[in-house]
Amino acid sequence: MFGVLQGFALILGIIGAGYLAARFRVVEGEQRRVLNNVAFYVATPALLFTVLHDSDPSIIVSPVILITSSAALIVAGVFILVSRLGFRRDLAETTLGATCAGYVNSNNLGLPVAVYILGDAAYVAPLLLVQLVVFAPAVLAILETTRGNQRGALVALGRAASNPVIIASVAGLLFALFSLPVPALVLGPIDMLGSAAIPMVLLSFGMSLRGQRMLQAGTGRAAVFTASGLKVLAMPLVAWLLATAFGMPAHEVFVATTIAALPTAQNVYNYAATYRRGETLVRDTVFLTTFASLPVIALIAWLLGGS
Q1: What is the DSSP string of 12-48?
Q2: Tens of pLDDT along 230-254?
Q3: Cα distances (angstroms) measured from residue 6 to each of 12, 13, 132, 261
Q4: For the chain, how long is the longest CA-to-CA vector?
Q5: Which of 34, 82, 122, 291 is most deeply packed, by most CB within 10 A?
Q6: Looking at residue 17, what is its pLDDT?
Q7: How many domains does the chain have?
């Protein structure tokens, strides 16, 4: 459990550094968007390529990942339904809210959880692949269609296909599938750029908190609470029910439930800030789920960890 606390402390420390940078005017106003854009268009594609090109694509079809991915799609669908009937948010905010409900922090929180609670870092690697190869391109394609392009959805989807995040993900997956070598002279700079992606995203998120109050009236708190509840409560419950119904071994039930309880990934805020859609909704949900997930994960470990 100490390793999980270290993971949370790491994230909150970098977010705090971003907040202080804005508080003391190292970065002011819209300048934070420069950092966010560098993260989105340069560092994140480099990170995705390095992660995927070293991966084993066959692990995407593991039973645990099929369960957690199904749980993500179910809670995302519930958010969409509630949004259409209750919040009446536009397509972009509905998409981002649904993504908040099901897109987990499988990297900088998922890894310590996998190592120190689940006992094996390999448990989160398949989910990372699914999110990068399937979920992220779908979300970005939808966000592209909301940019008001008058030439139609096909053009917007074409722009999505040229998105550097998607290009890097596809390229990394192809290199892994065909076991293509990457020269060290090429991989070195890519790897170094990729290592800057997560700190940049967290710093940008921290900067966005300056001058803002979380969960202010009139900012769509109902949508935030719905997305947060679906993420940290409903998704692990759905994962547990599915894993149990399919007769998975007790330890795999524990693994699937724990992974599903991870908080919303900061990458979702990166997408929202880049496309300037639903930023408050995503920011508040990421903030809330990051804190709320810790006691939920501890409870799951207590209830199921000895299975």
Answers
A1: HHHHHHHHHHHHTTSS-GGGHHHHHHHIIIIIHHHHH
A2: 999 999 999 999 999 999 999 899 9
A3: 10, 10, 25, 17
A4: 57
A5: 82
A6: 92
A7: 1
